[in-house]
UniProtKB/TrEMBL annotation:
Protein source organism: Microbotryum intermedium
Name the record gives this protein: BQ2448_7229 protein
InterPro entries hit by this protein: Catalase (IPR018028), Catalase_AS (IPR024708), Catalase_core (IPR011614), Catalase_sf (IPR020835)
A GO molecular function held by the record: catalase activity
Listed GO biological process terms: hydrogen peroxide catabolic process; response to hydrogen peroxide
Length: 207
């Protein structure tokens, strides 16, 4: 079967399943949380690495997790979408805030997102008159401003990069990301997306 068709079918079935089960009181919500129903159609990085290195699992992975609950024991029927109004996330979703807090505090050694990279520092000089476009003091002709440029490393984890101007009025940042497009529309799956790009602690594979 065409891989694209399989992914579309999987997405459709998962959405239907989540919508139906989330409306039935007392129904086990774990099936709606399982996202790997069609993930075995093609060999992924883990299988390829296992075939090359000879490292294999003792037994197939099992989805035997307990119910997904909040910090207060509330069963969460849908762990992939946050509360929204017309598609815009709202800041009154306790489950979203719990996930973001747990994600942000999961490491104390380094930042959980954009942790590594390198920087270069120098000066930024305005050589052409653009005063008709801006009133910013550091963009006036002849102004010299200390500046810094951050570069992402080559790891798969998405890396931020920015140009920072140390102006007399305060720091001015031009921020960006090493991916060509932003990766999530719903912030509920933001932490999962970042973790999916990191190495597996069990075997250190990019799977």
């Amino acid at each position: 079967m065409n891989p694209t068709a399989v992914r579309r079918l999987a997405s459709t079935l998962q959405n239907i399943q989540a919508n139906v089960l989330s409306k039935i009181p007392g129904v086990d919500p774990r099936p709606a949380q399982r996202m790997q129903a069609f993930s075995g159609r093609n060999d992924g990085p883990a299988k390829i690495a296992s075939r090359i290195t000879g490292v294999t699992q003792d037994e197939p992975a099992k989805d035997d997790a307990v119910l997904y609950t909040s910090n207060f024991g509330q069963v969460v029927a849908d762990s992939s979408h946050c509360l929204n109004v017309g598609g815009m996330p709202v800041q009154v979703n306790p489950i979203l805030l719990e996930r973001q807090q747990a994600f942000d505090r999961s490491k104390t050694v380094e930042r959980i997102v954009h942790p590594c990279g390198s920087s270069a520092f120098g000066t930024f000089t305005v050589k052409h008159d653009i005063s008709h476009l801006t009133k910013a003091a550091f963009l006036q002709p002849g102004t010299v401003t200390p500046a810094g440029r951050e570069y992402p490393d080559q790891a798969r984890n998405p890396r931020g990069f920015a140009t920072k101007f140390y102006t007399a009025d305060g720091n001015y940042d031009l921020v960006g990301l090493s991916w060509p497009v932003f990766f999530v529309h719903d912030p509920m799956i933001g932490p999962d997306n970042i973790r999916s790009q990191q190495r597996t602690p069990r075997n250190f594979f990019l799977d």
